[in-house]
Fold this sequence. Notes:
The protein is mainly alpha-helical. Among the domains are: about 45-110, no CATH class; about 160-240. Helix content is about 50%, strand content about 10%. The strands form two sheets. Strands 1-2 form a two-stranded antiparallel ribbon. Strands 3-4 form a two-stranded antiparallel sheet. Helix 2 packs across helix 3 (about 85-130), helix 4 (about 160-185) packs antiparallel against helix 5 and helix 4 packs parallel to helix 6.
Amino acid sequence: MTDYDVGYRKPPKQSKFKKGETGNPRGRPKRPTHAVPEMYEAGMKAILLQEAYRLVDINEDGKKTRMPLIQVIIRRLGVSAAQGRSRPMRYYMDLLRSIEEGNFSAYSACAKAMIDYKEDMGKEFARRKKLNPSEPDPIPHPDDIVFNSSTGKVELYGPMTKEEQVVWDRIEETEAAIADLEGMLAKDPDNPDNKFIEEDLAHERHVRQLLARAVPDYRPRPSRREARQKARLRAFKSFLEQFDPPPAPRSHRKRRPRSDK
C-alpha cells in the first residue's frame, strides 16, 4: 500500500495545486463598466431616445400588444386627461399646443422661402431667357411652385434635384409615347400592324408603372404646360383625321389665260 491514498480531500498529486500558486492565474474577470461619454456626445439623450422607443408589452382590451414606451406613456396621459383630471389635461394640451406651433412655424418658414425663391428666381430666369433663349431651366423651376387656393398651401409640382429631374423627364416621355401609340390605334383600328403597336404600348405602360414607384406623387409640371398642350393638340388632330381626312393639297401651277376666241 502506498503512503498516499487518493480519496476524500486527497486529489491525485499530478492535479494538485502547487504550493504558492493560485488556481486562477488570470484572476477574477472585471465587471463591464459603462464608458463616460465625451463632452461632445449626448449620452443621456441617446439613452433616453433608446428607452423611449423600446417596445413593451401591454394588455389592451384583453389582447397583448407591443408598442413603443413613449406611445404607452402618451396614451395613458391622454386617457387620464379624458377622465377629467386637471393636471394631465393641462399638460396634455400644452404639449399638443407646442407641437402644433412648432409645425406651423416650420411650415411658415418653408413656405416663405419657396415664395421668395419663386419671385426672385422667376425674375432672374426671365432676364436670362431674354439674353440667351437656350438657357437651361433652373431646378426647381419657379413655375412649378404653386399656391393651392383650395388648401391654402404652397406646393411644389416638380423635381428638386437633377437626379429627380431625370426621372420626371422619363415619366413625361413615357406618357407622351403612350398618348401617341393610343392615337395611332384609334386612327387606324383595322391596321394589321396594330399588334406591334399594342406590344409597344404595353411596354410603355409597364415602364410607367415602374417609374410611379420612384415618384408616387407625380403631377404634371406647370413649367411644361405649353409642351403638353402642343402634344395634346397633335394627338387631337390625328384623332380627327380618321373622321375627316385633310383635303388634298392644291396644285400651284399657273393657269393658262383663256383665249377670247
